[in-house]
Amino acid sequence: MSLTFRLAGLLALAGVTSACGFHLRNAISIPPELNPVRVVAPDPYSPLAETLADAMTNAGAQAATDPTQPATTLQIFTERWGDTPISIDQLGRAQEFSLRYAVIFALVDPQGNVVVPRQAVELSRDYVAPPADSVGATSERELLARELRRDMSTAILRRVGAALNVTHPERRGRDSVIEP
């Protein structure tokens, strides 16, 4: 292929991509006045809290190391899981389930001002679990639970980022990353 043909193809791809509404998503960056940040959950060993703490650190937050030090607090009030059967076989056994994950959280700055008010985020995924394949169903459910936990962390950080764009508009569009 000639170089001209390749360049024309790249330009056409760029044109199509921009025409479909694709754009760079802004990365979340924590303003310095909100540092340090602490993630608090009812379960001190919550995998979601650990994931969120890591993500906040990646967004530029400094972790609060002293529990007596005033800090911005990402408070996770509840984490709820549920399995709901959505289809049954001819013997009345559930074969397909909807795995639901709901979290209620809020973000409060060191002065006690609410940055992100208490709100709920709910995610769900459907999966098939034939009654005869109990080992495979358990592993698929665990895999989906890990995926939902990761997606929940992302959803919470997006909401925090949106709130920060409202309260700190000067930071809007500062850093950009490509996300699907």
Description:
With 180 residues, the protein is an alpha+beta fold. 35% of the residues lie in helices and 31% in strands. The chain is built from 3 helices and 6 strands; from the N terminus they run H-E-E-H-E-E-E-H-E. Strands 2-3-4-5 form a 4-stranded mixed β-sheet. The protein has a two-stranded antiparallel ribbon with strand order 1-6. The protein is elongated, with a radius of gyration of 21 Å. The relative contact order is 0.16. Belongs to the LptE lipoprotein family.
The fraction of residues assigned to DSSP E strands is 25-35%
Shape: elongated
Largest sheet: 4 strands, mixed
Please compute the radius of gyration using only Cα atoms: 21 Å
- What is the tally of beta strands? 6
Q: Which structural class do the helices and strands define?
A: alpha+beta
SS field, number of helical segments = 3
Order of helices and strands: HEEHEEEHE
Order of strands across the main sheet: 2-3-4-5
Which helices and strands occur, and which strands form pairs?
Elements: H1 3-19, E1 25-26, E2 37-40, H2 47-58, E3 72-88, E4 94-108, E5 114-128, H3 134-167, E6 176-177
Parallel strand pairs: 2-3
Antiparallel strand pairs: 1-6, 3-4, 4-5
Which characteristics define this entry?
disordered C terminus; alpha+beta; 4-stranded mixed beta sheet; 180 residues; two-stranded antiparallel sheet; elongated; 6 strands
